[in-house]
Every structure is written in C-alpha cells, then in structure tokens.
DNA sequence: CAAGGACAATTCGTATACAATCTTGTAACA
DNA sequence: TGTTACAAGATTGTATACGAATTGTCCTTG
C-alpha cells in the first residue's frame, strides 16, 4: 500500500499520503523548522517527499483548515504567523471550550473514561514526583484528550483535537514550569468528574486553563 | 479569469473554482438538497460543474474541515448526518464561544463596529415591527458577524465564521418564532457593548444563546 | 445450502502536462 | 528621476490518464 513514497514520509501510520504529509509539515511548523511567513512551495515539497504536487496540495488544505498555513490563490501557501496576540486568542478559545468539556464529562463519563483519566493522573503524579518533566507534555495531552472523549460531544472533541496542535504550537517553547500545581489541578478536575459534579468540574477546568494562561503570560516566548 | 467553468458555477464571486464549488455544495447541503449519508461522487460533481475532479476534491476537503462531509479514504465523500444530538453539540460549542466574543467586543469595539451593530439592530427592529420575518435571518447574521469582528480576536472570528454555516444548518428548518424577544436580547447586548461593560455583554449574550437553544429544543425539526 | 475466493465494476488516489496568474526586473518614456 | 509597459521567470490551477483500493457478484467447494 501507498505505492510510491513509503521511504520519505516517516510518519508512523497514516492512512493516506496527504495525511502523512500534513502530519510531517505540522510537526515541522510546530517545531519551528519553518519560519513564520515562509512560503511553502508545492513543487519543492513534492520533490522532497517524492510525490507529485497533488497530495501536497491536499495536505496544505488540511493545514489551512487547522490554521497553520494561509493559502492565497495563485500565490501559494505561507506558514501562519503566531504573534503574541494570536497566541492569546487561541488560548482564549480553549478557555471557552474546555470547561464545557469538563462539565459534560462529569455527566457522561463512562467507567472506561474514568479508567484512562485515573491512569493518566497516576502517571502524571509519578513523573512529577520523580521530576521526569520530559514525560509531562504527552501525559497532559492524554489527560485532556480523555476528558474530551468523555464529554460525549463529538463536535467539541473534534474541535479541541484540532486546536490541540495549535495550542502545542503556542506553548511549544515554555513547557510549564510548575508541573506540580498543574497535576494537582488535574486531580481536582478528575475528582469532580468522578463524583459526577458537573459544576465543580467546569469550575476546576476553568481555573486550570486560567492558570496555564497566566503562566504563559508571565513567561512569554518571544 | 476562471477559464473553464464560468457558466455552471453560479456563485456570485469566488476567487477560485474550489471555493465556488464549496459554496454551492454547502448551500445545497444546508438546503437539504442532499440526503444525509448520501455519497458525493467526485466524477459526477465534476461533470455537473463542468470541471475536472481536482477542484471538486479540494472543495470536498474544505467542506470536510467544516464538518459538512465525511471523507473516507478510497471510499469517498459522504454528507454528514446531523441528528438531534450533534445539533445540540454544535449549539453548545456556540454557547461557549459567543459570550467570549461579546465580552471582548465590549472592550475592543471601534466606532465603526458600533455603527454596523446599531444599523443591524435598527433594521432588525424595523423588520420585526413590520413582521417581515424573511429578512431576519440575514440581519441576525449581520449582527452576530459584526460582533465577532468587534471582538478583535481573529482566530475566534474565523472559528465562528465556520460554525456559522453549521448553525445555519441546524436551525435551517425552524426560523425562530419569537423574533421580537430575539431582537430585544440583541438590544441588551448592544447596549452593554456600547457602554463597554464586558461582564454585562458576556451575560447578555449567554442569555441570548441559551434562549435560542431553548427554543430549538422546544421545537425540534426532525 | 453456506462459506470462501476469483473477478469485474466502480470510485478514489496521484503522476504528468499544460494553462493561467502573479511577481519581478528592465527598458522606454514623460 | 519617477513611472509605466512589457517580457521573462516562477508558481499555482486544473485537465487528462492511469494505477490502486474497495465493494459486490458469481462461481466454486465443502
């Protein structure tokens, strides 16, 4: 399967070529390999990945929808600029949506959801206690993703899944310093979700996001 | 410009062919011309629009990002199903975002923004008083769009602009009965935005959206 | 008669080729 | 010197053609 280009596209397992290309490009944009505003020339990318321009174009369309590139007709694709303001704006959107997810999760969570949340929480605590900070970003991602799934609102989950990459981009440089507080906040959210207390879950998540934004404001990356 | 296909694509002015096709398809999906779950065969659409499959594919990618179609690799594009739940879920997302926009609008609105808002409000009141209900949906859209612009959060505006179509889809059948109350609520929002009272604006918008959801729940479309 | 496999038909995936458009540099002109 | 016109180069837009995956059908086989 995927006849022409298995070698260059290193991504683990993407069902289609455009998806694989999009993942690589997204990771590079988040990782800062491309300068903001830089043009992504289709032909160059196509040669780089060893494919034709068609799948590259589709990948760029996906990244456009996620806000990582801007597509200008007859001009090309340009890496989006993430200035201080647009970072704030993205976090503000997150602040509007995550509390809703938490509230719903407290109502609709299944036993399986709780399982995953408890597990992520335990691993997070563990890693924090041992100061294995490099593990935290992915554990954090697991915790939040599990909450979105538990919210039983698929549109919301999809939206937050998309935002996730952008938030990762925003946060990319300053990994949150106060890991311990962060996982204490998670604990509070988890407790509320377990108890089925939707109001408390919403409030706990609101506090959690606000704290993250506060930290982000205090230690600006650029 | 747009060499090959000016006649079939009736859209007003879209800069590129895929955009024009996407607009037509979106309108048809919202308008109920395609059954939910129905497959949109690229070849058929291409012939219908008098273009090749390439621009059709790009249009479908856009609609996928907006949640109107589902793209399955090697199977095709299918019109999304909007059941009762997913409609609720979309409205819930809106309920999370619009109050933020209103709060920010109260802080950042320019004199031009206020101009547009006052104008929309006046026209809405006028149309309501004369019972010209057919004018209300577009005026309502103008009012809300102006608020999003005034919020000075471009990411939020883009997101709400996308959601707009889906919300239109959700509401498509039952135009809100109580137009008068709706525009009284707008008035309250506008007053708060004019006064620069961000807390009041946020609360007024929250009430407005909640009322809309309540109506929607009371008069289900399917 | 049910289960499994070969095959055909349909549809998507993408490589190639060429047309349309935009940008930039240059030269003629006021 | 500043401005416009134009041509060349680069890049995107899309039509065509063919390869690949999926699905359904019909045949075989136990």
Please supply descriptive tags for the structure shown above.
68% helix, DNA-binding, homodimer, 3-stranded antiparallel β-sheet, 5% strand, 9 helices, 3 strands, elongated, mainly alpha, 222 residues
Overall helicity of chain A: 55-70%
What is the strand content of chain A? under 5%
Q: Summarize the biggest pleated sheet of chain A.
A: 3 strands, antiparallel
Rough shape of chain A?
A: elongated
Number of helices of chain A: 9
Provide the structure class of chain A: mainly alpha
N to C succession of SSEs of chain A = HEHHEEHHHHHH
- Note the quaternary state here: homodimer
Q: What is the β-strand count of chain A? A: 3
What does the model show?
With 222 residues, chain A is mainly α. Chain A is built from 9 helices and 3 strands, in the order αβααββαααααα. The first copy, chain A, has helices spanning 17-30, 42-49, 53-65, 84-108, 111-129, 136-150, 154-171, 179-195, 198-218, and strands at residues 39-40, 69-72, 76-79. A 3-stranded antiparallel sheet of chain A has the order 1-3-2. The termini of chain A are far apart. At the A-B interface, helix 3, helix 4 and helix 7 of A face helix 3, helix 4 and helix 7 of B. Chain B binds a DNA duplex (30 and 30 nucleotides) through helix 3.
């Amino acid at each position: 399967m995927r006849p022409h280009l298995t070698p260059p596209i290193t991504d683990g397992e993407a069902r289609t070529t455009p998806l694989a290309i999009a993942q690589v490009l997204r990771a590079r944009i988040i990782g800062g390999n491309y300068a903001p505003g830089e043009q992504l020339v289709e032909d160059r990318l196509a040669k780089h990945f060893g494919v034709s321009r068609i799948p590259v174009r589709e990948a760029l369309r996906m990244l456009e929808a996620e806000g990582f590139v801007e597509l200008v007709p007859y001009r090309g694709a340009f890496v989006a600029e993430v200035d201080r303001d647009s970072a704030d704006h993205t976090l503000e959107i997150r602040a509007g949506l995550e509390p809703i997810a938490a509230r719903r999760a407290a109502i609709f969570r299944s036993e399986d959801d709780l399982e995953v949340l408890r597990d992520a929480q335990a691993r997070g605590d563990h890693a924090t206690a041992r100061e294995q900070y490099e593990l935290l970003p992915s554990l954090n991602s697991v915790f939040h993703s599990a909450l979105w799934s538990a919210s039983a609102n698929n549109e919301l989950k999809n939206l937050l899944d998309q935002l996730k990459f952008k938030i990762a981009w925003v946060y990319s440089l300053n990994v949150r310093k106060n890991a311990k507080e962060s996982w204490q906040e998670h604990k509070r959210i988890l407790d509320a979700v377990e108890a089925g207390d939707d109001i408390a879950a919403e409030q706990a998540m609101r506090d959690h996001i606000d704290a993250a934004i506060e930290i982000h404001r205090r230690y600006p990356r650029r």
